[in-house]
Amino acid sequence: MSSTAHTHDRPVGDACPYCGWPDRAEPFRVVSRHGTAAGHTVWTRCGCGSLQMRVVDARGVRVVSRSRPAAEGADGVRCGVV
Length: 82
Fold this sequence. Notes:
- Helix content is 0%, strand content 35%.
- It has no helices and 4 strands.
C-alpha cells in the first residue's frame, strides 16, 4: 500500500500530489541509493519536502511511495530541505 494521498485538486500520476512538480524533473535531492537484485531503490526528497521512494529497474524509474511534505519549523524552513 502506498502512502501517496491524492486529493481532487492535485495532480495524479507522474507528478507530486502536493506541489504538482513532475516526478521525472529536477530539482529533487537524492537522500540515499541502494542496490537491489533487480536494480536500485532511491530515496529522494521533492522540492516541497515530500520524501519519495523510487524503484529503478528494467521497467524504468517509478515513485512507489511518497510522504507528505515535512512540517515547517519555527524558522519557516522545512525539515530536510535545503
